[in-house]
Amino acid sequence: MKGTEIREMTAQEIAERIQQLQEERFRLRFRAATQQLENPTLLRTIRRDIARLKTVQRARDQKEGR
């Protein structure tokens, strides 16, 4: 997920996407503890996507004065 894609999303879409990625990350971490993952770099990718989403979300909140 790229920064330009994230900036085009609404605040509600960003919050929903963060929730989805956090759930997916939890499932992957649980699966990684019990068995080998097909794509272990997916955990890193998801973690970075969450960080990008939260960064844009926080910048918008600060801009609005929250």
Automatic annotation (TrEMBL):
Signal peptide (residue range): none
GO cellular component, one term: cytosolic large ribosomal subunit
Gene3D superfamilies attached to this UniProt entry: 1.10.287.310
Keywords on record: Ribonucleoprotein, Ribosomal protein
BP GO terms, sorted: translation
Superkingdom field: Bacteria
Gene Ontology MF annotations: structural constituent of ribosome
NCBIfam families for this protein: L29
Family recorded in the similarity comment: Belongs to the universal ribosomal protein uL29 family.
Full protein name: Large ribosomal subunit protein uL29
Gene designation per UniProt: rpmC
